Amino acid sequence: MIDVQHWLSALPPGVVYLLVAGVIGVESMGVPLPGEIVLVSSALLAATGVVEPEWVASAAAFGAIVGDSVGYAVGRRGGRPLLARLGRRFPKHLGPAQLARAEQSFARHGVWAVFFGRFVALLRILAGPLAGALHVPYRRFLVANAAGGLVWAFGTTYLLYSVGRAAEHWLKDISWAGLVLAVLAGLVSTWWLRRRAHRVASADGAADMEAAEVPSGGQSAGAPSGGQAAVVTPGVEPTRAGEH
């Protein structure tokens, strides 16, 4: 990330804003790119005065909202075959296991998965195409998408910008410590959302395991076969109902 920040610092501010919007936009369409790294690096760069935080946040929000909308349209037109092709192309990021977890989140939380997905790497990539493939109503998708994009972009940018400015003021002679502090603050800003997402994933896995443990045919463990209950009388050997 430090290398990315150093590389961005050599670019004109306008190019940085376009790069932020472009990388985050393409990532939101369903292509695995380091959108969050670019945003964090640009926000830290804003703390040094090279770029303006409001333009960084606006570019990130624009890229997130437009990219997710394009991803939604592509997913709605291409459906599950498109997601399968993406999984074959990017198996580490969009393979069958990742797609299954994302679908479980949508099934349980609906459009809220779009909002919280902006703070989780997997859903940030899949939210748009998956919502389109599942035919989520676009108006509901757009509201959740815009809310998540704005909160994520402006919240992350201004939190890191504020912490970076404070670190620069108080830690002028220990610049590396200020950078570490800013990065830690950025991680904390999304900690509770990531923790919520992980809890949801764990609950989904536990529910699947419980369902798998139920014997086939609906017969409970320990029940006699043949559909007849055993008749037990104290002091008498158990017999089948109907036996004499």
Automatic annotation (TrEMBL):
Source organism (scientific name): Micromonospora saelicesensis
Keywords, comma-separated and alphabetical: Cell membrane, Membrane, Transmembrane, Transmembrane helix
Main location: membrane
Domain of life: Bacteria
Compartments where located: Cell membrane
The UniProt record lists the keyword Amino-acid biosynthesis: no
Bias (Low complexity): 213-232
Residue stretches spanning the membrane: 7-26, 111-134, 141-162, 174-193
GO cellular component terms listed in the entry, alphabetical order: plasma membrane
Annotated protein name in UniProt: Putative membrane protein
Residue ranges constituting the VTT domain according to the UniProt record: 41-161
Pfam families on file: VTT_dom
Record's bilayer topology term: Multi-pass membrane protein
